[in-house]
Amino acid sequence: MNQQPKNQISKKGLTVWRVYGMIETAIIVLIAGGAAAITYFFDGPWWLYAIYAAIPLGFAYLLIYLFPKIRWKRWRYEVREQEIELQHGLFIVKRTLVPMVRVQHVDTEQGPILRKYDLAEISISTAATTHTIPALVTAEADELRNRISVLARVAEDDV
Amino acid sequence: MSEIRYKLHPISAFLNFIKGLKELIFPFIIIFGVNLFRGGGETVAERGVQDLIPVFIGAAVLVFMLVSGLIKWRRFVYWFEEDELRIEYGLFVKKKRYIPFERIQSLNYTEGIFHRPFGLVKVKVETAGTGKIGQAEVELTAISREDADRIEKKMEHAKHHSREPMLEAEEAIEEEVRGLPSKTVKTVYRMSLKELIILATTSGGIGVVISAVAVFLSQFADLIPYDAIYQEVVLFLRFGYLIVALLIFLILLVAWIISIVLAIFANYQFTITTDEDHIFISRGLLEKKKVSVPFKRIQGIQISQNPLREWFGYATVTVESAGGTFGDKDEKIRLFPLAKKTTILPILKELFPDMEWEPVMRRAPKRSLHFFYRLDFFWMFPVAGLISYFFYPYGLFSLIIFPIVILFAVWQHRTVGYALADRQLTMEFRTVSKHAFFMMKKRIQAIEVTQSYFQRRKDLASIQATIKSGMLGATARIEHMEKEDASKVLAWYEPSDNKTADLQK
After folding, report:
1. B438 φ, ψ to 5°?
2. Of A2, A94, A127, which has the smallest distance from its Cβ to B445's Cβ?
3. What are the residues whose beta carbons fall under 8 Å from the beta carbon of A87, sequence distance 6 or more?
4. What residue intervals traverse the membrane (chain B) (predicted)?
């Protein structure tokens, strides 16, 4: 019981998260740039520029390097015959157990960035909750979706 | 098409009209009220005809509503065909809705003041409902009692009929022997007058009434001549704060009394009855409401006690049931609005004999105590510090929040706990009020265990269970439990783990 779920998500997922991190960082750089322009305009003190440079660097380290790495290492899932087990989280590790009989439907979804890397995310819905596995190779996601829907079909209807 | 088509009672034309009127009342008041007052002292003749335009429009709208109410009634028919309740209605566009009896969750009855003299009821047909919010169910505005009974009978008949082939042979025979109409309806609880009064006086309805008054006043804000009032107020203030305070108190008192009266009206003659597969809750003085909950749909039971009620041993019990009306205030069905815990427990035992109502709880370990308050220091230190600094001598009183928050945390720590039975999970926790969730294992949708960095260091974890309630989920969460306990709950919940355990037996 105490061992972790077996499967990890695709290594390419890490790359995708890094891309997301870059996009977020780019936005922060833009904001910092705007702030620097205003400072220049109003003759602000020199150390403000240092701060404007430091903040994006710090975020770049966290968002592009550290956070994706931890998240990727932490993300695990396992689909067994009778239940689905998930584990994820950055600071707070969350472990979720969903019995197969509770699954109502499964979706796969693919945004433009995920499609470029041939990845898809898969969402598992029960009557009351939704759980997402964020980055799986498309073929694997499709296979998993079909497997879950077959396994879930034995569900009895007590909601 | 040999089936008889039934109509609603003619009064429903009038009810449609009233309902439409209700929706328009605020726009009406604003438009007309403001316009009438704006004219000041002039008479209609002086103002000329164009000022009467709003009045004409208003009259036209009224007539339109009256006619549409009539047509809606004329157009509305329902009948039974092929084990379905079929309805045809619509003002401009004719709509048909077929509901298989199988899919009907429950029929809820309401008797308004206009229904009473004619012996009518309003029937809401509830389905599990995945349709649009508020549109999921069908409403029969006014039908006679006999008609309502007929629907119920047809429904019961259809359900038994279609279920039979699925039953095992023996059970089917048993069913035959017992016969259909043998459903015994039993009264299990009737709220006493004392309980009703306690409920009314301690309920939190005050806030609602106050806000209603505020809203009401704000609607008329434009009409109040502030300048004139201002002069008065200045004069008034010279009388001193006492009168102002007294006035506020009086307003609060009146609001409170109104809320008491409303609560008494809403919960008058609160009665729980059951038959084999439903719980019926009926209540109300002016408007009688009857709600039925099929046992099959009940997902969990919650017992809540705010500190005051806990002190006197009173509790509120709500039923989490799947499906049902959404967007309604009564979404959570209150099984007991308020009763002594000692009266509640035996009744719950009778209603749900499978469940354990006083399990022995496993509490959080001692070392998790400081988890309950240490995050609070993040806001307490700056707040208390600033107040003490800026309002020096008296500001020091703000330091009192430290013991209060810590004592509160101790209390929360004492309350949090869980109990595992063979097929039931019970969780108890406290925000301010104490909540106990009783959940059957087969009703739990998912269990989550979370562990923050600090919890990991101390070997603690939080456990969260979600059940379905209404259209969404209800979640019970207990914080900072022993890691071992979290693992135990997960293992208990894991279907394949149980399989192996069973095999070993």
Report:
1. -110, 115
2. A127
3. A4, A5, A74, A75, A76, A77, A93, A94, A95, A96
4. 21-40, 52-71, 196-221, 241-265, 371-391, 397-421
The beta-carbon neighbor of A83 closest among B443, B474, B495 is: B495
d(CA B402, CA B55): 62
> Which residue in B356, B354, B334, B333 sits closest to B345, CA to CA?
B356
* ipTM value for the complex: 0.78
**What is the per-residue pLDDT for B156?**
77
What contacts A27, CB < 8 A, 6 or more positions away? none
Of B451, B456, B494, the CB nearest to A83: B494
**DSSP conformation class of B29:** I
What pLDDT is stored for residue B179 in this prediction?
42
Query: Is A2 part of any domain?
Result: no
Contacts of B60 (CB under 8 A, 6+ apart): none
For residue A135, the enclosing domain spans 78-158
Q: What is the pLDDT of residues B199-233, one digit of tens each?
A: 877 765 555 556 566 655 655 555 556 666 677 76
Alpha helices in B34-79, H assignment, sequence order: 34-38, 44-47, 53-75
Identify whether the C-beta of residue B285 lies closer than 8 Å to the C-beta of residue B326. Answer: no
- Angle between helices B241-267 and B193-202 in degrees, nearest 10: 140
Q: Same domain for A111 and A53?
A: no
Is residue A89 left, alpha or beta, with left meaning phi > 0 and alpha meaning psi from -120 to 50? left
pLDDT band at B180 (very low <50, low <70, confident <90, very high): very low
Nearest residue of A to residue B299, measured between CA atoms: A159
Beta-carbon contacts of B298 under 8 Å, excluding residues fewer than 6 positions away, are B279, B319, B320, B321
| Residues A94 and A137 both lie in one domain | yes
Give the integer Cα–Cα distance in Å for A17 and A93.
18
Q: Does residue A51 sit within a domain? A: yes
Tell whether A1 is covered by a domain.
Answer: no
Cα–Cα dist B234/B231, whole Å: 5
Q: Which residues of B touch A83 (CB under 8 A)?
A: 494-496
> What are B238-282's pLDDT values in tens digits?
666 667 677 777 887 787 788 788 888 888 888 888 887 788 888
- Please compute the mean of the pLDDT values over residues B2-25 and round it to a whole number: 80
Any long-range contacts for B418-423 (C-beta under 8 Å, 24+ apart)?
Answer: B418/B361, B418/B362, B418/B463, B418/B478, B418/B481, B418/B485, B418/B489, B419/B356, B419/B359, B419/B360, B419/B361, B419/B362, B420/B488, B420/B489, B420/B492, B421/B356, B421/B359, B423/B354
Same domain, A93 and A42: no
Q: A94 and A68 share a domain?
A: no
Q: How close, in Å, is residue A7 to chain B by CA atoms?
A: 18
B300: chain A residues, CB-CB within 8 Å: none
How many CB pairs below 8 A link A and B?
Answer: 86
Please check whether residue A6 touches B, CB under 8 A.
no
A95 within some domain: yes
What's the predicted TM-score (pTM) here? Answer: 0.71
Q: Does A151 touch chain B (CB under 8 A)?
A: no
Contacts of A99 in chain B (CB under 8 A): 493-495
A68 with A11, same domain?
yes
Query: Do A53 and A116 share a domain, yes or no?
Result: no
Percent over 70 (pLDDT), chain B: 75
Is there a contact between B445 and A98 if contact means CB atoms under 8 Å apart?
Answer: yes
Residues 6 or more apart from A133 whose CB is under 8 A from it?
A9, A75, A77, A86, A121, A122, A123, A124, A141, A144
Domain count across chain A? 2
